Amino acid sequence: MPKRLVLYGDGLICPPDGFGEIFLDHLLMMAPGASWQSSIQGSETLSLKQALSEISLHVIGKAPQQLLLAFGAGEIAMGQAPENLAKYLEEMLHLVTTKTQSQVALLSLPEAFFPVGETRQSAVKYNRILASLAKPGIYHLSINPAIESFLAQHRESLGEKKSLHFAPNRLTTLGKLFLAQTVAKAWPWPLAD
User: Fold this and answer.
1) φ and ψ at residue 70, rounded to 5 degrees
2) What is the pTM of this model?
3) Which of 25, 35, 116, 137 has the fewest C-beta atoms lying within 10 Å of its C-beta?
């Protein structure tokens, strides 16, 4: 029986500007013999509050064995308080862990994609909340070390600097490819048995 993988999130992973489709392609290349089904659920502007109200349809009803949750980029960019978002996320995790057998990966926000100042500090705080939610079966997938390393290398290079994003949840083509590779390499669980 094929494994079921669901990506559920906002514009960071959902089309048209998210990296979810390319991420799934990378997983397929990394495990070409694996038997699995995947789907991307959510939308560019999906809020955590709305996602929680729709989780039965988009996640629980699909009975995933692996789940990537990627929320918060658009809401933090609009000035939402991380603590308020965490309430919805905690309830979402409770539902997923009690209603499914899924392993859950919580994708951190790309802190460098947010403007320096209060908004970036909110992204940092939100990521700390995500890290605090990690426990067996729930994994905090941090992409920030890889992003910082990439940006540092390109700041020092003589070549033209290529941007990874237009907005926190609106990626360039290079940004999609980079995040897809980064998350695929860091994926905590095997796709094949």
Assistant:
1) -135, 90
2) 0.94
3) 116
